[in-house]
Amino acid sequence: MKRREQTVSNRINKSDHLLRRVARLHMLRWADLPKGHTPPLAVVRATDHPAYPYHRHEFWEIVIVTRGSGLMAFGPKTLPIRVGDVFVIARDQEHAYQETSSLDVVNIAFDPAYIGSFHPLIDDWMSHDALFEVGPRWKSGETPGECLHLGSSEFARALDLVQRMEDELGNLLSVEARIAAFAYFLLLITLLRRHCLPWTPLGAAAPDIRIGRALEFIQAHFAEPITIDDIAAQSHVSRRHFFRLFEKEVGVRPMEYLKKVRLNKAASMLLTTNANVTEAAFACGFSDSNYFSALYHKEFGISPSQFKREGRIG
Questions:
Q1: Which of 10, 122, 266, 300 has a 20 to 30 A CA-CA distance from 135?
Q2: What is the pLDDT of residues 91-115, one digit of tens each?
């Protein structure tokens, strides 16, 4: 518990430090990001984000709202924001946070020119002024701010990809980890392009925040021996009501979702580390490597040991 509280405290301190630097500089550069966050790709979390005046970045940024509410301002235009919203902020685009309340966001900073160099199709994606073709309609002459809104299942997938990307970026001395981080980033922007809903005003249907808390809890504690009661407790509703809400929002039962998260985390670990099958199973929340292997084969159509040897699924 103390270690978890320390981690949260560190994140808050980094966020406060970053905001103070923005206030002083107005233009946020790669060098101003917290230590360990370097170009061309970085994930920076901001907890309890305060209202903040207009500022710009030297990089592009994807902002995912994970908790709370507020307003995102672009020039004279403001957009109400809530859980599940995603903003794409271009280099040098002035923007501000206003009227924030318990706002948590994930900021993904990236250099489109570098990432576009991997493939001509990716370069074509990255060379457009707007990364996504959805968002509110802006009048001629107004500064655009690209915004999209994720449904619950897409929101859960996006959070999973962000966590995977963040895990890999924590090991930048490894070439494999850097490649994996870029791969997860490409999967994320593909997901956002394919599985987004048009932006809608505040008050329209949003991912149920109670289920959002449960999904975040699973992502943070999948490796621990958590139970359905532990997960349901995050929603602050009855166990029975939680089951109905979760299946409605996510499409599968809670423990089935937990199992899929653990299997995907294990697949990533087998692909990007030296861990063997038993080590990956135990590190991802399974207490029996034989049971893990059976589930893995059922889910992916290949045994984990074969996947470890061949580095592929299917």
A1: 122
A2: 888 888 999 988 999 999 998 877 7
